[in-house]
Amino acid sequence: MISGVLTLASRTLRSVMTPRTEISWVDCERSRDEVREQLLDTPHSLFPVCRYELDEFIGVVRAKDLLVALDQGVDIAEFAARTPPIVVPETMDVIKLLAVLRRAKGPSGDGDQ
């Protein structure tokens, strides 16, 4: 176990990141029906929400929460903006990222402070 932690500590985010071409993301400019279908057809629980392209990042949403919001007529971009991204350098090591993510969750444990 210790060797696994040491190996993880020496790895940068770049070495564990998903390649851009493999990221499943929601385009907030697509129709509600298209977004709903995408969420139901993709086996991920979290999605980045962007405008037109991955570089126009708005926020991250839980699929189940966005499905409820879609049913309630909530604007996708406004909904995603409630959970802005955590931006870190790709040179950061994985252990430091875990600490950043833990702090970002806040006292409630779900990111809402």
Automatic annotation (TrEMBL):
Signal peptide: none annotated. Residues 17-76 form the CBS domain. CDD domains: CBS_pair_CorC_HlyC_assoc. Its main location: membrane. One of its GO terms (cellular component) is plasma membrane. InterPro entries: CBS_dom (IPR000644), CBS_dom_sf (IPR046342), Ion_transp-like_CBS (IPR044751). It is found in: Membrane. It comes from the Bacteria. Keywords: CBS domain, Membrane, Repeat, Transmembrane, Transmembrane helix. This is Magnesium/cobalt efflux protein CorC. It comes from Serratia fonticola. The gene is yoaE_4.
